[in-house]
Amino acid sequence: MKQSELAGLIGCDQSYISALENGHKGPPPSIFIERLVSTLRLSQAEQAQLHWAFKASGRKLEIAADAPQDLFILVDTLRDKLPRLGPAAVQALLIALNKSDQLPEKSDRPARRLRRRQSEEATMQ
User: Fold this and answer.
1) 35, 10 contact by CB (below 8 A)
2) pTM to 2 decimals?
3) Which of 21, 32, 34, 101 could anchor a disulfide with 28, C-beta 3.0 to 4.6 Å?
């Protein structure tokens, strides 16, 4: 389907479709997505993939004002380094981020072994 045909069916300009395809526009409004789903009669799986793609194409990240300072440092570091990351580094970060979901919650107490070592050192002195 040509861009001009799709634009006519959805009710937008062909240049907008082109800008979306070329990455010159951020995610479109939800009405655009609804019209696209309806016009192309997308399956549930295709709709899910489309919604994911539009979400992933977002260019802005908002961090809660009460987020921990480490989170601001991480985002600032990523902002500086992203333009220079190669495909292997991107994959490594994705793997690390996905595995972070499996890590146990951080405890305020030191590990049992560390506490034992500290008490042993105290008795040696």
Assistant:
1) yes
2) 0.57
3) 32
Coil, helix or strand for 115? helix
Q: What is the pLDDT along the chain (125 residues), one digit of tens a residue?
A: 899 999 999 999 999 999 988 888 888 888 999 999 999 999 999 999 988 888 888 888 889 999 999 999 999 999 999 999 999 999 999 899 887 776 666 555 544 555 555 555 556 55
Dihedrals phi, psi of 26, to nearest 5 degrees:
-75, -170
Cα(21)–Cα(15) distance, rounded to whole angstroms?
10
- The total of other beta-carbon atoms located within 10 Å of residue 19's CB is 14
Around 95, how many Cα atoms within 13 Å sit in the side-chain half-sphere? 6
Nearest to 54 by CA among 43, 63, 46: 46
58 burial via Cβ count (<10 Å: 0-12, 13-18, 19+): exposed
Amino acid at 38: S
